Amino acid sequence: TAASLEFGFSQPGYIICETVHADVPWRDDIVDQGYTLEKEGRIVRPNPRPGLGIELNEAEIRKHPPEPEIVERVFYPDGSVGDW
Predict the structure, then answer these.
(1) For labelling, which of 30, 76, 77, 82 has a CA lying 20 to 30 Å from the CA of 14?
(2) Sign of the CA dihedral 62, 63, 68, 74?
(3) Dihedrals φ, ψ of 69, to 5°?
C-alpha cells in the first residue's frame, strides 16, 4: 500500500488505490503505515517520513509466523478449471 500510494501522489491522474486494512486483526501491531486517512471524503494524506514512511515492529512480526495457505482448486465434471 505504501509504495502504491507514493506512486499515486506523484501522478496527477491517480484516483483510487485499493488497500487492505482488515486482513488480520494484528496489522496495526506490526506496521505503522505513516500516512493518514481522513474518514470524511476518504482522502489519504502523504506521510512526512523519508522513503515509504512505514515502520515495522519486528518483535511483533515474529509473533505471527507465516502459515501455508492451501489454495482451493475447483474442477468441473468435464475437467475444466473453475474460479474459486
Answers:
(1) 30
(2) negative
(3) -105, 130
- Domain ranges in the chain are 2-63
Instruction: Concatenate the DSSP letters of all residues of the chain into one string.
Output: -HHHHHHHHT-TT-------SSSSTTHHHHEE---EEETTTTEEE--SSSTT--EE-HHHHHTS---------EE-TTS-EE--
Residue the block writes with cell 486494512: 21
Rg of the chain over all Cα atoms, to the nearest angstrom: 18
pLDDT in tens, the chain (84 residues): 788 888 888 888 888 887 777 788 998 899 888 788 888 878 888 888 888 888 999 999 999 999 888 888 889 999 898 876
* Whether the predicted model's global pTM rises above the 0.85 cut: no
